[in-house]
Design a protein that fits this description.
Blueprint: E1 2-11, E2 14-24, E3 29-33, H1 40-48, E4 55-60, E5 63-64, H2 67-71, E6 73-76, H3 88-98, H4 103-116, H5 132-144, E7 150-154, H6 162-177, E8 182-185, H7 189-195, E9 198-203, E10 206-212, H8 213-219, E11 224-230, E12 243-247, E13 250-255, H9 260-270, E14 272-279, H10 283-291
Helix pairs in contact: 3-4, 3-5
Protein name: ABC transporter ATP-binding protein
Subcellular location: Cell membrane
GO molecular function: ATP binding; ATP hydrolysis activity
Length: about 290
């Protein structure tokens, strides 16, 4: 289990982190979201030991994380760190060796990742000749080649097409299923909502929302009640809370409050009820509310 507890970091008069804390359990996919400059990258760099925190602690398995622990981590920085002139397979194998793999093990792991990430036809090409999406795949392979104990990815899906997103997402889900704590930052909130078990929303260096995705959605209230009625008489919703719109031969009533049963009885009396249910807020809506 990776624990980040009370991290604080200042640059002169600017507070970059103000008591940031979160926990990523084994096998959990954690989405770390926030606006540019909110503190996501600073947090990740402290976890990886690239930066020192002014205070706070990073723990792995209940004890302070060490240099040797960090050698077992997989890290994908926002600013990609590939050697542009080096060939794809050579590069992945090279990083495997840097992480302590024997030559044969590094070659085997590289071959498996090249196959899994769809890079077989480009394995002999220099990185500079690849598209952005394929460079992202190589960067992910570099982070995975040594079978990391923790996986930390800063904007791994940035600029990718849907097929590349799906390929990377499947690999991350496999690593989580193997018991690896996975934390990644992203501005693609629909993707975070789809992939992640838990999420943390950071704003101006502080965690403003944190927890399992389902609990966060429930915590924001009952959601919006949506009622769809076909062939209803005009004025049937007069006196009911909410906003009524017309879609073809259907009336659509959206309510944030009011008694559900009273609204349902009125709708049944007005016409054929085709839909009646509450829609929980999306992660994007929770994000906007949290950082407002």
């Amino acid at each position: 289990m990776l624990e980040i507890d009370g991290l604080r970091k200042r640059y002169g008069d600017k507070t970059a982190l103000d008591g940031v804390g979160l926990t990523v359990r084994p096998g959990e996919m954690f989405g770390f979201v926030g606006a540019n400059g909110a503190g996501k990258t600073t947090t990740m760099r402290i976890v990886m030991g690239v930066l020192d925190a002014d205070s706070g602690e990073v723990r792995l398995g209940g004890r302070p994380v060490t240099y040797d622990d960090r050698r077992t981590f997989g890290y994908m920085p926002e600013e990609r760190g590939l050697y542009q002139k080096m060939k794809v397979a050579e590069q992945i194998e090279y990083f495997g060796r840097l992480h302590g793999l024997a030559p044969a093990a590094a070659r085997s792991a590289t071959a498996a990742l090249i196959e899994r990430l769809g890079l077989v036809e480009r394995s002999g090409d220099a990185v500079e000749a690849l598209s952005l999406g394929n460079q992202q795949r190589v960067q992910l392979a570099v982070a995975l080649v040594h079978e990391p104990a923790v996986l930390i990815l800063d904007e791994p899906f940035s600029g990718l097409d849907p097929l590349a997103v799906d390929a990377l997402a499947e690999v991350l889900k496999d690593r989580a299923a193997a018991g690896v704590p996975v934390i990644f930052s992203s501005h693609q909130l629909d993707l975070v909502e789809r992939l992640c078990d838990s999420v943390g929303i950071i704003s101006a260096g502080r965690m403003v929302a944190y927890g399992p995705v389902g609990e966060l959605r429930e915590r924001e209230g009952r959601g919006t009640l949506r009622v769809v009625v076909r062939d209803a008489a005009p004025g049937w919703a007069d006196g009911l809370p909410g906003e009524l719109t017309r879609e073809g031969d259907r009336d659509v009533l959206l309510c944030e409050e009011g008694d559900d049963q009273d609204i349902l009885r009125t709708a049944i009396g007005a016409g054929k009820v085709e839909h009646f249910g509450r829609r929980q807020p999306t992660l994007a809506e929770i994000f906007r509310e949290a950082v407002a």
